[in-house]
Amino acid sequence: MAETVTIIIDGEKYEFPVITGSEGEKAIDIRQLRAKTGYITYDPGFGNSGSCKSAITYMDGKKGVLRYRGYPIEDLAENCCFVEVCYLLLNGDLPNRSEYQRVSVMLNDHSLVHEDMQIFFQNFPRSSNPMGILSSMVNALRSFYPELMTTEEAMEITFMRLISKVRTMAAMSHRISRGHKIVYPRPDYSYCANFLNMMFDSPVRPYEIKKEFVDALNMFWVLHADHEQNCSTSTVRGVGSARANIYAALSAGIAALWGPLHGGANRAVVEMLEDIRKNGGDVKKAVERAKDKNDPFRLMGFGHSVYKTYDPRAKIMKKMCDKVLAVANTQDPLLDIAMQLEEVALNDDYFKDHNLYPNIDFYSGIVLRALGIPVEMFTVMFALGRLPGWIAHWRELMDDPEKKLFRPRQVYVGETERRVIPIDER
Ligand code: SDX
Questions:
Q1: CA atoms within 13 A on the CB side of 356
Q2: Which of 359, 363, 364 to mutate to test the pocket of ligand 1 (most atoms within 8 A of CB)?
Q3: Which domains, ranges and CATH numbers included, belong to the chain?
Q4: How confident is the model at residue 151 (pLDDT cuts 50, 70, 90)?
Q5: 57 lines ligand 1 (CB under 6 A)
Q6: Dihedral of the CA atoms 339, 342, 347, 349 (nearest 10)?
Q7: Within 92-210, where are the H helices?
Q8: The Cα angle at residue 396 between residues 94 and 134, in degrees rounded to 5
Q9: N or C: where does the chain have the smaller number of CB atoms within 10 Å of the terminal CB?
Q10: What pLDDT is stored for residue 119 in this prediction?
Q11: Distance from the CA of 344 to the center of ligand 1, in angstroms?
Q12: Which residue, among 135, 110, 108, 105, has the nearest Cα to 120 in the 3D structure?
């Protein structure tokens, strides 16, 4: 017997089916709600509404669980490189050695960017925000690859092209913004080593590839690779639901990630920590400001729409800080401030009552600073990690027999009908 719920409206009973997910989570199927009752639901930000069924990522916000295709994030971060996780998200399972080799060759073969695109980069003002450049350039990339994705092979080439070229373009935008010659990808470097080399190699000071930094970057991007229906992924799905092409959908996802409440938080955390440091390191004052309803200040890197406990990714990121700082042979005063801030906040009743814990962005900036990534590139680093997740969700939506054009409803609270009064009588 299929499970149902009953809603009573004006004495009338209405039954709606219940959908149960593979982890036992329940959803009321309200697709017939408006037709049957004339009512709609009201759920700003859709925090209580499922937009789709998905088999990509599972999160338990209470227990702090995150799994990609069933694999716990802790296991993946410890044992897999970013390219393996890209394959996992796109294909549903981890690659064996020959599959890994095959996609690595594809990523290498599609790592160059059309030379004509350099002119686009060179014509952005030097001070342009790299997220705006990346969003524009991903859209522009389609002009060079207008072919339709009608076969599995064409799909895979497009996905590999995006994962490889967007990484190259990110490094290019950084180099050109600094007035430096661009560095080309190398066939003898791995995906992550190539990115670091394209960012930092110099004719007068060749960049030394450190295994620990390459490992840290792999782990950083594995932690960012997907996160079910977050704001930017829902944006990618929304654009995809109109059957716009994947380049347009990803460009929109990058734009959504730019926001300081979402992917822009990693940069906002470091700017917040810098402010606290410059003002004498008074973390208690920052916590008090974050609690003050009259103060727009929020503790960036704290709180989460889903996690009401410690973000499992933040735990891993926090451990990574010490490792990369040791290899970089440097201390970062912001790490001490971050840890003091965490200590005070986690022992504060307001934060405990509101279930506010560090999220992935709280420590990620410390890792990026140790790798030498400039702060203006922090959210770009998040975007490069999230790319395979966005692509996997776009693909899942395209294959979903129940997909619909995104078109939420509203509760209208404006003027009721009225007549126009001629201008000279108003
Ligand atoms: C990411 O969705 C994803 O999965 C995103 C992400 C991913 O991988 O894709 O995980 C990446 O975006 C992580 C989040 C990065 N953003 C930040 O760190 C910005 C700071 N955090 C907040 O702005 C906030 O926590 C949100 C937006 C992240 C989540 O907010 P909620 O849970 O949707 O709810 P809310 O904004 O309504 O806050 C609920 C209460 C409010 O207090 P009350 O009015 O109920 O008394 O908690 C308070 C808020 O004022 N609150 C905070 C706070 N976050 C929430 N108070 C102080 N500091 C904070 N950081």
A1: 23
A2: 359
A3: 65-263+387-399 (1.10.580.10), 265-371 (1.10.230.10)
A4: very high
A5: no
A6: 160
A7: 97-109, 117-122, 130-144, 152-177, 191-200
A8: 85
A9: N
A10: 93
A11: 18
A12: 135
